[in-house]
Protein backbone atom coordinates (compact mmCIF):
# COMPACT_ATOMS: atom_id res chain seq x y z
CA UNK A 1 0.00 0.00 0.00
CA UNK A 2 1.30 3.46 -0.83
CA UNK A 3 -1.06 5.91 0.81
CA UNK A 4 -0.62 5.07 4.51
CA UNK A 5 1.65 7.31 6.52
CA UNK A 6 0.88 7.36 10.23
CA UNK A 7 0.09 3.64 10.54
CA UNK A 8 3.78 2.81 10.16
CA UNK A 9 4.24 3.55 13.87
CA UNK A 10 2.61 0.25 14.79
CA UNK A 11 4.94 -1.71 12.57
CA UNK A 12 7.98 -0.06 14.14
CA UNK A 13 6.69 -0.61 17.68
CA UNK A 14 6.61 -4.40 17.47
CA UNK A 15 10.27 -4.93 16.46
CA UNK A 16 11.25 -2.55 19.24
CA UNK A 17 9.19 -4.56 21.73
CA UNK A 18 10.71 -7.83 20.51
CA UNK A 19 14.21 -6.42 20.72
CA UNK A 20 13.56 -5.20 24.24
CA UNK A 21 12.29 -8.59 25.31
CA UNK A 22 15.29 -10.29 23.74
CA UNK A 23 17.55 -7.94 25.68
CA UNK A 24 15.76 -8.71 28.94
CA UNK A 25 16.05 -12.41 28.20
CA UNK A 26 19.80 -12.14 27.78
CA UNK A 27 20.14 -9.91 30.84
CA UNK A 28 18.18 -12.01 33.35
CA UNK A 29 20.43 -14.51 35.14
CA UNK A 30 19.50 -18.18 34.99
CA UNK A 31 17.56 -19.37 38.00
CA UNK A 32 19.16 -22.02 40.19
CA UNK A 33 17.77 -25.53 39.81
CA UNK A 34 17.21 -25.59 43.57
CA UNK A 35 14.53 -22.88 43.45
CA UNK A 36 11.12 -24.29 44.34
CA UNK A 37 8.54 -24.47 41.52
CA UNK A 38 5.97 -21.69 41.31
CA UNK A 39 2.43 -22.27 42.51
CA UNK A 40 0.61 -21.54 39.23
CA UNK A 41 1.01 -22.53 35.61
CA UNK A 42 0.78 -18.84 34.63
CA UNK A 43 4.18 -18.22 36.22
CA UNK A 44 5.86 -21.60 35.73
CA UNK A 45 4.84 -23.52 32.60
CA UNK A 46 6.17 -26.80 33.93
CA UNK A 47 4.26 -26.62 37.22
CA UNK A 48 1.75 -29.35 37.92
CA UNK A 49 -0.84 -27.01 39.46
CA UNK A 50 -4.17 -26.22 37.84
CA UNK A 51 -4.79 -22.56 37.07
CA UNK A 52 -7.49 -20.07 36.16
CA UNK A 53 -6.31 -16.67 34.98
CA UNK A 54 -8.09 -13.49 33.89
CA UNK A 55 -6.68 -10.31 32.36
CA UNK A 56 -7.86 -6.84 31.47
CA UNK A 57 -5.95 -4.32 29.40
CA UNK A 58 -5.69 -1.26 27.18
CA UNK A 59 -4.21 -1.23 23.68
CA UNK A 60 -3.24 1.27 21.01
CA UNK A 61 -3.84 -0.01 17.47
CA UNK A 62 -2.90 1.36 14.06
CA UNK A 63 -2.99 -0.17 10.60
CA UNK A 64 -4.29 -0.07 7.06
CA UNK A 65 -6.84 -1.94 4.97
CA UNK A 66 -7.13 -2.14 1.22
CA UNK A 67 -10.30 -2.36 -0.87
CA UNK A 68 -10.07 -3.25 -4.57
CA UNK A 69 -12.39 -3.51 -7.56
CA UNK A 70 -11.25 -5.50 -10.61
CA UNK A 71 -12.62 -5.60 -14.14
CA UNK A 72 -13.39 -9.27 -14.69
CA UNK A 73 -14.05 -8.61 -18.39
CA UNK A 74 -10.59 -7.11 -18.98
CA UNK A 75 -8.20 -9.63 -17.50
CA UNK A 76 -8.86 -8.63 -13.92
CA UNK A 77 -7.14 -5.25 -14.10
CA UNK A 78 -7.57 -2.92 -11.12
CA UNK A 79 -10.19 -0.24 -11.78
CA UNK A 80 -10.55 1.09 -8.23
CA UNK A 81 -8.40 1.06 -5.09
CA UNK A 82 -9.38 2.48 -1.72
CA UNK A 83 -6.92 2.71 1.15
CA UNK A 84 -8.47 2.83 4.63
CA UNK A 85 -6.01 3.89 7.34
CA UNK A 86 -6.26 3.40 11.09
CA UNK A 87 -4.13 6.22 12.48
CA UNK A 88 -5.07 5.64 16.14
CA UNK A 89 -7.59 3.39 17.86
CA UNK A 90 -7.84 2.87 21.61
CA UNK A 91 -8.77 -0.71 22.47
CA UNK A 92 -10.05 -2.40 25.62
CA UNK A 93 -9.22 -6.04 26.22
CA UNK A 94 -10.62 -8.90 28.28
CA UNK A 95 -9.10 -12.35 28.42
CA UNK A 96 -8.97 -15.59 30.31
CA UNK A 97 -6.89 -18.76 30.53
CA UNK A 98 -7.78 -22.18 31.90
CA UNK A 99 -5.01 -24.75 32.47
CA UNK A 100 -6.62 -28.07 33.50
CA UNK A 101 -3.20 -29.77 33.38
CA UNK A 102 0.34 -28.44 33.36
CA UNK A 103 0.92 -28.99 29.60
CA UNK A 104 -2.39 -27.58 28.31
CA UNK A 105 -3.87 -24.07 28.25
CA UNK A 106 -7.17 -22.87 26.80
CA UNK A 107 -7.04 -19.14 26.02
CA UNK A 108 -9.62 -16.57 24.99
CA UNK A 109 -9.07 -12.87 24.32
CA UNK A 110 -11.43 -10.14 23.13
CA UNK A 111 -10.38 -6.61 22.16
CA UNK A 112 -12.78 -3.85 21.06
CA UNK A 113 -12.55 -0.10 20.54
CA UNK A 114 -13.57 2.22 23.36
CA UNK A 115 -14.22 5.27 21.16
CA UNK A 116 -14.10 6.04 17.46
CA UNK A 117 -10.55 6.22 16.14
CA UNK A 118 -8.84 8.58 13.71
CA UNK A 119 -8.39 7.42 10.13
CA UNK A 120 -7.85 8.51 6.56
CA UNK A 121 -9.17 7.30 3.21
CA UNK A 122 -7.93 7.71 -0.34
CA UNK A 123 -9.85 6.50 -3.39
CA UNK A 124 -8.29 6.10 -6.86
CA UNK A 125 -9.98 4.97 -10.08
CA UNK A 126 -8.50 3.92 -13.42
CA UNK A 127 -11.15 4.34 -16.11
CA UNK A 128 -8.64 3.94 -18.94
CA UNK A 129 -6.38 0.86 -18.97
CA UNK A 130 -2.62 1.20 -18.84
CA UNK A 131 -2.46 4.79 -17.66
CA UNK A 132 -2.43 6.98 -14.57
CA UNK A 133 -5.43 7.34 -12.31
CA UNK A 134 -8.38 9.23 -13.74
CA UNK A 135 -10.41 9.90 -10.57
CA UNK A 136 -9.26 10.65 -7.04
CA UNK A 137 -10.92 11.51 -3.75
CA UNK A 138 -9.18 12.14 -0.42
CA UNK A 139 -10.93 12.09 2.95
CA UNK A 140 -9.15 13.44 6.03
CA UNK A 141 -12.34 13.25 8.07
CA UNK A 142 -12.49 9.47 8.35
CA UNK A 143 -13.50 7.71 11.58
CA UNK A 144 -12.74 4.14 12.55
CA UNK A 145 -16.07 3.21 14.11
CA UNK A 146 -15.45 -0.48 14.84
CA UNK A 147 -12.38 -2.39 15.94
CA UNK A 148 -12.96 -5.99 17.05
CA UNK A 149 -10.40 -8.76 17.65
CA UNK A 150 -11.42 -12.18 18.98
CA UNK A 151 -8.88 -14.96 19.52
CA UNK A 152 -9.64 -18.45 20.86
CA UNK A 153 -6.85 -21.01 21.02
CA UNK A 154 -5.53 -24.14 22.65
CA UNK A 155 -1.87 -24.11 23.66
CA UNK A 156 -0.03 -27.43 24.11
CA UNK A 157 3.40 -27.67 25.72
CA UNK A 158 5.62 -29.77 23.43
CA UNK A 159 9.05 -29.49 25.05
CA UNK A 160 9.82 -28.11 28.51
CA UNK A 161 12.94 -27.51 30.54
CA UNK A 162 13.40 -25.96 33.95
CA UNK A 163 12.88 -22.43 32.58
CA UNK A 164 11.90 -22.69 28.90
CA UNK A 165 9.03 -24.36 27.08
CA UNK A 166 8.19 -24.81 23.40
CA UNK A 167 4.45 -24.75 22.63
CA UNK A 168 2.13 -25.49 19.72
CA UNK A 169 -1.13 -23.65 19.07
CA UNK A 170 -4.43 -24.36 17.36
CA UNK A 171 -6.77 -21.40 17.22
CA UNK A 172 -9.53 -19.40 15.59
CA UNK A 173 -9.65 -15.62 15.06
CA UNK A 174 -12.31 -13.12 14.05
CA UNK A 175 -11.14 -9.60 13.09
CA UNK A 176 -13.53 -6.80 12.12
CA UNK A 177 -13.03 -3.11 11.31
CA UNK A 178 -15.38 -0.43 10.01
CA UNK A 179 -14.77 3.10 8.71
CA UNK A 180 -16.88 6.14 7.83
CA UNK A 181 -15.47 8.71 5.38
CA UNK A 182 -16.97 12.21 5.38
CA UNK A 183 -16.35 15.37 3.38
CA UNK A 184 -13.06 15.46 1.46
CA UNK A 185 -11.81 16.68 -1.89
CA UNK A 186 -11.95 15.19 -5.40
CA UNK A 187 -10.39 15.33 -8.84
CA UNK A 188 -12.50 13.67 -11.57
CA UNK A 189 -12.19 13.12 -15.30
CA UNK A 190 -15.60 14.21 -16.64
CA UNK A 191 -15.22 15.78 -20.10
CA UNK A 192 -11.44 15.39 -20.16
CA UNK A 193 -8.51 14.04 -18.18
CA UNK A 194 -8.72 15.30 -14.55
CA UNK A 195 -10.74 18.32 -15.64
CA UNK A 196 -13.04 18.62 -12.61
CA UNK A 197 -11.96 19.37 -9.03
CA UNK A 198 -13.77 20.37 -5.89
CA UNK A 199 -14.75 19.44 -2.36
CA UNK A 200 -17.62 17.60 -0.73
CA UNK A 201 -19.57 19.38 2.02
CA UNK A 202 -17.81 19.04 5.36
CA UNK A 203 -19.37 16.30 7.46
CA UNK A 204 -21.27 14.74 4.54
CA UNK A 205 -21.13 10.94 4.86
CA UNK A 206 -19.70 9.59 1.62
CA UNK A 207 -18.66 5.96 2.14
CA UNK A 208 -19.00 3.35 4.89
CA UNK A 209 -16.75 0.30 4.63
CA UNK A 210 -16.47 -2.83 6.78
CA UNK A 211 -14.11 -5.82 6.64
CA UNK A 212 -14.46 -9.08 8.60
CA UNK A 213 -12.06 -12.04 8.58
CA UNK A 214 -12.60 -15.58 9.92
CA UNK A 215 -9.37 -17.48 10.50
CA UNK A 216 -8.56 -20.99 11.71
CA UNK A 217 -4.80 -21.03 12.35
CA UNK A 218 -1.80 -22.95 13.63
CA UNK A 219 1.15 -21.53 15.55
CA UNK A 220 4.32 -22.16 17.50
CA UNK A 221 5.77 -20.28 20.44
CA UNK A 222 8.03 -20.30 23.45
CA UNK A 223 7.75 -19.29 27.08
CA UNK A 224 10.64 -18.51 29.41
CA UNK A 225 10.30 -18.04 33.17
CA UNK A 226 12.97 -16.25 35.24
CA UNK A 227 11.90 -15.76 38.85
CA UNK A 228 9.05 -13.23 38.60
CA UNK A 229 9.61 -12.48 34.90
CA UNK A 230 7.93 -14.40 32.09
CA UNK A 231 8.80 -13.85 28.42
CA UNK A 232 6.81 -15.32 25.55
CA UNK A 233 6.53 -15.05 21.79
CA UNK A 234 4.22 -16.69 19.25
CA UNK A 235 4.17 -17.01 15.47
CA UNK A 236 0.82 -17.86 13.84
CA UNK A 237 -0.30 -18.46 10.28
CA UNK A 238 -3.17 -19.66 8.11
CA UNK A 239 -3.97 -20.34 4.46
CA UNK A 240 -7.68 -20.89 5.15
CA UNK A 241 -8.80 -17.28 5.61
CA UNK A 242 -12.38 -16.45 4.69
CA UNK A 243 -13.99 -13.07 4.94
CA UNK A 244 -16.58 -10.57 3.88
CA UNK A 245 -16.70 -6.86 3.16
CA UNK A 246 -19.48 -4.31 2.77
CA UNK A 247 -19.16 -0.95 1.02
CA UNK A 248 -21.91 1.65 0.96
CA UNK A 249 -21.48 4.62 -1.38
CA UNK A 250 -24.11 6.87 0.20
CA UNK A 251 -24.08 9.58 -2.47
CA UNK A 252 -24.64 6.99 -5.22
CA UNK A 253 -27.01 4.87 -3.13
CA UNK A 254 -24.92 1.84 -4.05
CA UNK A 255 -24.08 -1.03 -1.71
CA UNK A 256 -21.64 -3.84 -2.50
CA UNK A 257 -21.27 -7.10 -0.59
CA UNK A 258 -18.05 -9.12 -1.05
CA UNK A 259 -17.26 -12.69 -0.07
CA UNK A 260 -13.75 -14.14 0.12
CA UNK A 261 -12.13 -17.50 0.81
CA UNK A 262 -8.74 -19.22 0.60
CA UNK A 263 -6.65 -16.29 1.83
CA UNK A 264 -3.42 -16.13 3.82
CA UNK A 265 -2.66 -14.59 7.21
CA UNK A 266 0.37 -14.47 9.47
CA UNK A 267 0.80 -12.85 12.86
CA UNK A 268 3.33 -12.51 15.65
CA UNK A 269 3.08 -11.36 19.24
CA UNK A 270 5.57 -10.94 22.05
CA UNK A 271 4.85 -10.45 25.76
CA UNK A 272 6.83 -9.35 28.80
CA UNK A 273 5.07 -10.29 32.06
CA UNK A 274 6.03 -9.54 35.65
CA UNK A 275 4.55 -11.18 38.78
CA UNK A 276 3.75 -8.41 41.25
CA UNK A 277 2.41 -10.85 43.86
CA UNK A 278 1.60 -14.56 43.87
CA UNK A 279 -1.70 -13.81 42.11
CA UNK A 280 -1.40 -10.33 40.56
CA UNK A 281 0.77 -9.51 37.56
CA UNK A 282 1.23 -7.10 34.66
CA UNK A 283 1.96 -7.60 30.96
CA UNK A 284 3.33 -5.46 28.15
CA UNK A 285 2.71 -6.91 24.67
CA UNK A 286 3.22 -6.15 21.01
CA UNK A 287 1.12 -7.70 18.21
CA UNK A 288 1.35 -7.56 14.41
CA UNK A 289 -0.99 -9.21 11.90
CA UNK A 290 -1.12 -9.21 8.10
CA UNK A 291 -3.73 -10.51 5.67
CA UNK A 292 -2.50 -10.86 2.09
CA UNK A 293 -4.73 -9.53 -0.68
CA UNK A 294 -7.62 -11.93 -1.18
CA UNK A 295 -10.00 -11.97 -4.16
CA UNK A 296 -13.66 -12.89 -4.18
CA UNK A 297 -17.11 -12.40 -5.63
CA UNK A 298 -19.41 -9.46 -5.04
CA UNK A 299 -23.04 -8.43 -5.25
CA UNK A 300 -23.88 -4.87 -6.24
CA UNK A 301 -27.19 -3.46 -5.00
CA UNK A 302 -28.26 -0.34 -6.95
CA UNK A 303 -30.88 0.95 -4.54
CA UNK A 304 -32.18 3.76 -6.73
CA UNK A 305 -33.13 1.41 -9.56
CA UNK A 306 -33.63 -1.72 -7.48
CA UNK A 307 -31.25 -3.65 -9.76
CA UNK A 308 -28.88 -6.23 -8.26
CA UNK A 309 -25.90 -7.59 -10.19
CA UNK A 310 -23.48 -10.40 -9.35
CA UNK A 311 -19.79 -10.34 -10.23
CA UNK A 312 -17.13 -13.07 -10.06
CA UNK A 313 -13.56 -12.42 -8.89
CA UNK A 314 -13.97 -8.64 -9.11
CA UNK A 315 -13.44 -7.77 -5.41
CA UNK A 316 -10.31 -7.71 -3.29
CA UNK A 317 -9.30 -6.87 0.26
CA UNK A 318 -6.27 -6.92 2.54
CA UNK A 319 -5.38 -5.75 6.04
CA UNK A 320 -2.42 -5.22 8.33
CA UNK A 321 -2.57 -3.97 11.90
CA UNK A 322 -0.22 -3.56 14.84
CA UNK A 323 -1.06 -3.05 18.50
CA UNK A 324 0.88 -2.39 21.68
CA UNK A 325 -0.91 -3.09 24.95
CA UNK A 326 -0.57 -3.32 28.71
CA UNK A 327 -2.66 -5.57 30.93
CA UNK A 328 -3.21 -6.57 34.54
CA UNK A 329 -3.48 -10.31 35.21
CA UNK A 330 -5.01 -12.24 38.08
CA UNK A 331 -4.28 -15.96 38.63
CA UNK A 332 -6.08 -18.39 40.90
Q: What is the topology?
A:
Layout: H1 8-27, E1 51-71, E2 77-101, E3 104-113, E4 117-125, E5 135-160, E6 164-182, E7 185-188, E8 196-199, E9 205-226, E10 229-249, E11 254-275, E12 280-302, E13 307-331
Antiparallel strand pairs: 1-2, 1-13, 2-3, 2-4, 3-5, 4-5, 5-6, 5-7, 6-9, 7-8, 9-10, 10-11, 11-12, 12-13
Structure in words:
The protein has 332 residues and is mainly beta. 6% of the residues lie in helices and 70% in strands. The chain has one helix and 13 strands; from the N terminus they run αβββββββββββββ. Strands 1, 2, 3, 4, 5, 6, 7, 8, 9, 10, 11, 12 and 13 form a 13-stranded antiparallel beta sheet that branches. β9 and β10 form a beta hairpin. It starts with 7 loop residues before the first helix and ends with a strand.
Q: Structural class per helix/strand content?
A: mainly beta
The percent range for helix content is under 10%
Give the biggest beta sheet: 13 strands, antiparallel
Radius of gyration: 23 Å
Which geometry do the CA atoms define? elongated
Which residue ranges are poorly predicted, with pLDDT under 50 across at least 5 consecutive positions?
A: 1-48
Report the total helices: 1
Number of β-strand runs: 13
One letter per element, helices H and strands E, the order comes to: HEEEEEEEEEEEEE
Report how far apart the termini are.
Answer: 45 Å
What number is the mean pLDDT? 88
- In terms of DSSP E residues, the strand content is over 45%
Amino acid sequence: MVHCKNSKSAYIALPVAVAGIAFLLSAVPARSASVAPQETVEINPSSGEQMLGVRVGLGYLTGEAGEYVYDETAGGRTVSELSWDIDSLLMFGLGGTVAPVSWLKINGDLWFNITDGDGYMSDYDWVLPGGSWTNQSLHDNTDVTTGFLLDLNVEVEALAGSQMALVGLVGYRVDRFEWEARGGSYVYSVDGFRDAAGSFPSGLLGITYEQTYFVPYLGVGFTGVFDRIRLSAKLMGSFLVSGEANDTHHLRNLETEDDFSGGNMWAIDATFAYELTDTLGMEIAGFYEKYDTIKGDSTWNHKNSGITTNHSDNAGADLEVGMISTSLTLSF
